[in-house]
Amino acid sequence: MPTDSPAPADTPRTPPAPAEQVPAPAPERAAHRDPGPGPTLRDSDAPASDAPRGYRAVFAVVEFRAVFAAHLLSLLGVVVSELALTVLVYDLTGSPLLSALTFALGLLPYVVGGTLFAGVADRYPARRVLVVCDLLCAACVAVMLVPATPVAGLLALRCLVAAIAPVFTGTRMAALTDILGEGDLYVLGRSLLRIVSQSAMLIGFGAGGVLLTVLSPRGAITVTVVTFLCSAALLRFGTRDRPARATTGDGGGTLLKESLSGARLVLGDRRIRALMLLFWLPAMFVVAPEALAAPYADAIGASPAALGLLLCAMAVGHIGAELFVGSALSPRNRSRIVLPVAAAGLLPLLVYVVRPGLPLALAALALAGAGAAYVIGLDQWFVDAVPQELRGRAMTLLTAGLMTVQGLGMALAGLAAEFFPVHQVVAGSGIIGTVCTLLLVAEVRRTASGRMSDTEGRDGADRHVTSR
Q1: Who has greater pLDDT, 210 or 3?
Q2: Quick count: other Cβ atoms within 10 Å of Cβ 408?
Q3: Whole-structure pTM over 0.85, yes or no?
């Protein structure tokens, strides 16, 4: 996350020095520029036929395996601790409100941490930031285990962990460009981490429920301390120590200034802002059926088991579609589908107009989850658009905004359901979200016009423009 004056997104940038990267086995190279709606690959950019391809090529990079294992461990630990902490707060207070607030506090502080501390990701070496974040989270969770910690203290510690999370995630996203390069390996690496995140929601809550049958809530939370420490060890000893992405003068007092100036630079660039909103906007509306799953299940007379299916359907659709797009489509085709899939991704929610029964609702939710696969191509566009020295701050802000808008979307859906039937609220989210996304797709296309590299300017026949 430190130079306050990066080159504009449409200025050619020098790629990172080879010494800064771990060589990956014959990665598919993507242009370092942001030429249009998506990056352009030519025949000369195809990988060698005997080299690992797709997700196998990502796992062939040793450092990524360490990052992947650390992500899997810490994520499972976080999911288990969220469930255990909710139970603990309810046991201590008997208050459903405070118990629910424990979940909400996992989302709300993201905007604070992502905005005020984003400068950390570029100012300090990535490995140091990641390890320190894991250790700080482990320390916060360890204090939760102390019986004398009051409920207010538990909630405050939950907020602190949530404020650290976007800094960690943004730093890791930026570090992946050093580990995997800026081309297709990076895109597939990000895809794998997303798949793990979706899977952890399905597996983690189940594992947490099992743990709570044999352990006390504080005993289950202990597991999280161990997973954070294991994650820190994997990152410390499994990844290379690289210098900070940008350097600034001494003095801790400048960190806030760097973070806020980075946010201004990111949001002030029309292309980067449009791409960032394309991550955020559909996510804000697609959470409505999940937020209202319980009242909808009650409205159609579904069983508690059916409620579980309603909560899982979207994640299952997302995982399946992301695996298909990442393994079956070429980088060029992933780029082609970004705008059409983003524009149509919320349309399945319109099925809720007819107040569907369980089978139709599950199909609609799975399709809506599958619509999120457009972000695989969008990842490449985003990394091409953001200058390297600003990348940590941009990705930290992206993460913070994504979590914040999802929390806001859930809150607005709940508020609307106080005045309108649940099925109408979900259908309305699909309609309003689709209209807003179509307007945003038009803006993304406008910001892509004329953004060609010098080579593409000379050889216009090779330039790919999304057909949508």
Answers
A1: 210
A2: 16
A3: no
